């Protein structure tokens, strides 16, 4: 079956809903991207909170509207906090999203990612190598970078969605978002998005926020990718390189809901 294109109207709707509802997002993410992730969530109109101790994480994930689990700089202590946060979110019926950074070649994080998959993530967002490895079809990428194109991981994404019940987003030059049955395709963005750190990680935070919105989770997650594709393209058109890109990208994300898509 041919993938469907995401509707631009739904991307505009989700950009506006994120800002109107301003979901509170509990982020347990890696040390490299904390500040950029918080700024991206603020730019789209959501509200970030990085509550990281395991005792507080258990309580806070029940209060927040959605939870992000990103294993980019996973430590044993952080794994405890992540288990507690997922537990709190699941007990309170709050959706959680997994970013399986660098899953595949590294044993500890790969074991941990497989373990928490059983705790029913609402969404999983990764690059092609991560999604292939998580689905059991590949060895993973080069550190945090993909060595395969997203198109090569579409079948693995569908399998992973069927196995876990999560919406799976595999990103790259083109993004594919699937519930295991229907697959939506998102084009746009710019290669400059891979020349600054944390765009994928920040997208996973916006995917987590989209999971807190009412309506079709498949379409809402795809629209989160649509928001990034549109803002990335607009920012790159004005940017001279990786120095100015993050600022222009934050401005473009903000303008999507303050000036309309
Ligand atoms: N070649 C490209 N052209 C256009 N957009 C791209 C390209 N590569 C990535 N993107 C966009 O960049 C964003 C991040 O996706 P990517 O697949 O690079 O994540 P990632 O590898 O997990 O990143 P990171 O781990 O560095 O945060 C997505 O919005 C994606 O659509
Ligand atoms: C560079 C890097 N290393 C671990 S996490 C991270 C951020 C991009 O995924
Ligand atoms: Mg990544």
From TrEMBL:
Q: Which reaction does it catalyse?
A: 5-(2-hydroxyethyl)-4-methylthiazole + ATP = 4-methyl-5-(2-phosphooxyethyl)-thiazole + ADP + H(+)
EC no. given is: 2.7.1.50
Which major enzyme category is it? transferase
Q: What is this protein called?
A: Hydroxyethylthiazole kinase
Q: List the keywords (alphabetical).
A: ATP-binding, Kinase, Magnesium, Metal-binding, Nucleotide-binding, Thiamine biosynthesis, Transferase
Q: Which gene encodes it?
A: thiM
Task of the protein: Catalyzes the phosphorylation of the hydroxyl group of 4-methyl-5-beta-hydroxyethylthiazole (THZ).
Binding residues for substrate? 50, 198
Task: Name the CDD domains for this protein.
Answer: THZ_kinase
Annotated binding of ATP, by residue: 125, 171
List the InterPro entries hit by this protein, alphabetically.
Hyethyz_kinase (IPR000417), Ribokinase-like (IPR029056)
Q: Which GO terms describe its molecular function?
A: hydroxyethylthiazole kinase activity
Obligatory cofactor(s): Mg(2+)
Q: Which family does it belong to?
A: Belongs to the Thz kinase family.
Pathway given for this chain reads: Cofactor biosynthesis; thiamine diphosphate biosynthesis; 4-methyl-5-(2-phosphoethyl)-thiazole from 5-(2-hydroxyethyl)-4-methylthiazole: step 1/1
């Amino acid at each position: 079956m041919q993938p469907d294109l995401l509707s631009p109207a739904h991307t505009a709707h989700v950009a506006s809903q994120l800002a109107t509802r301003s979901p509170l997002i509990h982020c347990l993410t890696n040390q490299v991207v904390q500040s950029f992730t918080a700024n991206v969530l603020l730019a789209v109109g959501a509200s970030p909170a990085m509550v990281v101790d395991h005792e507080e994480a258990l309580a806070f994930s029940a209060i927040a509207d959605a939870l992000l689990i990103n294993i980019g700089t996973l430590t044993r202590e952080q794994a405890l906090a992540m288990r507690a946060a997922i537990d709190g979110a699941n007990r309170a019926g709050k959706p959680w999203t997994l970013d399986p950074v660098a899953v595949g070649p590294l044993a500890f994080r790969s074991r941990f990612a497989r373990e928490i998959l059983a705790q029913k993530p609402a969404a999983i967002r990764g690059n092609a190598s991560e999604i292939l490895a998580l689905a059991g079809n590949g060895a993973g990428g080069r550190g945090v970078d993909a060595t395969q194109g997203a198109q090569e991981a579409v079948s693995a994404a569908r399998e992973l969605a069927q196995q876990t019940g999560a919406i799976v987003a595999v990103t790259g030059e083109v993004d594919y978002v699937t519930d295991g049955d229907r697959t939506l395709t998102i084009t746009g963005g710019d290669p400059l998005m891979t020349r600054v750190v944390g765009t994928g990680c920040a997208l996973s935070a916006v995917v987590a926020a989209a999971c807190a919105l009412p309506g079709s989770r498949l379409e809402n997650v795809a629209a989160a990718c649509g928001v990034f594709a549109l803002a990335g393209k607009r920012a790159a058109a004005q940017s001279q390189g990786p120095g100015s890109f993050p600022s222009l990208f934050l401005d473009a994300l903000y303008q999507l809901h303050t000036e309309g898509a």
